[in-house]
C-alpha cells in the first residue's frame, strides 16, 4: 500500500520524502523531514494512527490526511483521528489494492494537495474540543434554553398581568429550515455548530457533508450525541419536523421533495455526481429553494471546490438568509470563497460566531 500510494502521488507531481511502516516511525519521520503533508493509516503496529496524529499535532503540527478502510470500526477510529487534529480522510478501496487505488489516483492527489495547504499551526475550537467537552456544551445549551423558556413563560404571564416584559427577550420565527454544506475539515466544524444551536429554535436541519457511504451514518450518530437535535442519516422518503436533522447519505444526493405544515420530506437519488461529488450541496439547496416556502437559512462551511455556490444563489433568490465561514477559520477556503464570490452571501463569520449568526437570522423581538 505504501508503494502504491507513493507511486500515485509522485506520478501526480507530489514528492514523497519519506515512508514509515508504523505510527512511531511516522512521528520520527515528520520531525526529521518536516513534510508539507502526511498520509496516515489507521491501524498500524507499534503506534496506531490516532496516537501518531496526536503526537504529531503536539510536537510538530503538520496537515494529516487519514487513509481509512471502509468499515464501521474504521469509521469510528477515523473520526477520533479528526478530533485529534487530522484534516480529512480518504477511503481506501477494497479488492485488489493496486488496481483499485489507481482508479482513484486523481482524487487522492487532489486531496493530498488540498490538505497540504491547510495551516494547522493555529488551532481552532473545532480541533481542540474533546467529545466530553462537546457533550458538556450540548447539555449546557439545553439547560440554558430550558431556563430561557421558563423566563419567556414568566414574561408572558407578567404581560397578561399588566407587567411589561423584558424588551431583550427574543423568540424564534416558526418553521425555520437550516441547510448546511461542508467538505474538507467539515466534520468537527459541523459538530461544534450543532452543539451550540438552541433546541428552542426548533429548526429543521439538512446537512450535506462530502463523505462516503459507511461514514455518514456514524457522523449522524456523533451529531445526535453532541447536540440538542435528533439527528439521523437520511433514508429515502424521510420526513422531519422541528428539532430534527438529517445528514445526507454517502453516495446519494438528498433532494427536498415536499414541504407542508412545517414538515419536509426528502428523497435519495443516485443520479450523476454534481461538482464531481455525491451527495452534492447544490442538489439539496437548489431543491430546497424550489420546494420550501418557509423561512430558510443556508451556511457554507470549509471545503475544497465550488459545491454550494449555485445552491446559495438559488436560496438567496428564494428569500433565504445566507452565511459563509471566513477564510481564517476554514481548513480549506474553497467552498466558502466560491459562495461569497456569487455576491449572494449576507454574512461571513468565523467559526465561533456561526451558531450565533444562524440564531440571529431566525430571531424576532417580542
UniProtKB/TrEMBL annotation:
GO BP terms: chemotaxis; phosphorelay signal transduction system
Main location group: cytoplasm
PROSITE patterns: CHEB, RESPONSE_REGULATORY
Signal peptide: none
Record PTM: Phosphorylated by CheA. Phosphorylation of the N-terminal regulatory domain activates the methylesterase activity.
A GO cellular component annotation in the UniProt record: cytoplasm
EC number assigned by the record: 3.1.1.61, 3.5.1.44
Residue stretches of biased makeup (Low complexity): 147-168
Start and end residues of each Response regulatory domain: 1-107
Example GO molecular function: protein-glutamine glutaminase activity
Chain spans, region Disordered: 142-168
Stated family: Belongs to the CheB family.
Comment, domains: Contains a C-terminal catalytic domain, and an N-terminal region which modulates catalytic activity.
Protein name as it appears in the record: Protein-glutamate methylesterase/protein-glutamine glutaminase
Amino acid at each position: 500500500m505504501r508503494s502504491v500510494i507513493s507511486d500515485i502521488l509522485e506520478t501526480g507531481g507530489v514528492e514523497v520524502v519519506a515512508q514509515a511502516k508504523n505510527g512511531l516511525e511516522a512521528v520520527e519521520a515528520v520531525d526529521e523531514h518536516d513534510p508539507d503533508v502526511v498520509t496516515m493509516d489507521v491501524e498500524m503496529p507499534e503506534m496506531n494512527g490516532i496516537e501518531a496524529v496526536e503526537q504529531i499535532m503536539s510536537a510538530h503540527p503538520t496537515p494529516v490526511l487519514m487513509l481509512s478502510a471502509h468499515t464501521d470500526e474504521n469509521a469510528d477510529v477515523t473520526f477520533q483521528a479528526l478530533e485529534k487534529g487530522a484534516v480529512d480522510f480518504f477511503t481506501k478501496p477494497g479488492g485488489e489494492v493496486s488496481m483499485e487505488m489507481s482508479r482513484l489516483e486523481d482524487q487522492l492527489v487532489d486531496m493530498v494537495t488540498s490538505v497540504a495547504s491547510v495551516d494547522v499551526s493555529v488551532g481552532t475550537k473545532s480541533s481542540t474540543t474533546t467529545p466530553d467537552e462537546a457533550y458538556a456544551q450540548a447539555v449546557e445549551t439545553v439547560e440554558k434554553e430550558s431556563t430561557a423558556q421558563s423566563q419567556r413563560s414568566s414574561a408572558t404571564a407578567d404581560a397578561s398581568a399588566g407587567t411589561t416584559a423584558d424588551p431583550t427577550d427574543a423568540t424564534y420565527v416558526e418553521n425555520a429550515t437550516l441547510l448546511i454544506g461542508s467538505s474538507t475539515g467539515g466534520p468537527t466544524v459541523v459538530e461544534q455548530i450543532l452543539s451550540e444551536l438552541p433546541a428552542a429554535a426548533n429548526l429543521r436541519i439538512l446537512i450535506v457533508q462530502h463523505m462516503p457511504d459507511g461514514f455518514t451514518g456514524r457522523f449522524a450518530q456523533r451529531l445526535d450525541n453532541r447536540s440538542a437535535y435528533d439527528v439521523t442519516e437520511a433514508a429515502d422518503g424521510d420526513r422531519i419536523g422541528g428539532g430534527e436533522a438529517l445528514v445526507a447519505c454517502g453516495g446519494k444526493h438528498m433532494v427536498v421533495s415536499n414541504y407542508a405544515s412545517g414538515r419536509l420530506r426528502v428523497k435519495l437519488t443516485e443520479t450523476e455526481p454534481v461538482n464531481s461529488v455525491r451527495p452534492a450541496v447544490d442538489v439539496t439547496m437548489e431543491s430546497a429553494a424550489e420546494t420550501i416556502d418557509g423561512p430558510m437559512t443556508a451556511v457554507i462551511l470549509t471545503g475544497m471546490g465550488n459545491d454550494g455556490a449555485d445552491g446559495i444563489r438559488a436560496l438567496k433568490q428564494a428569500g433565504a438568509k445566507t452565511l459563509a465561514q471566513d477564510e481564517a477559520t476554514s481548513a480549506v477556503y474553497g467552498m466558502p470563497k466560491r459562495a461569497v464570490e456569487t455576491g449572494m452571501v449576507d454574512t461571513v463569520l468565523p467559526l465561533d460566531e456561526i451558531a450565533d449568526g444562524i440564531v440571529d437570522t431566525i430571531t424576532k423581538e417580542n
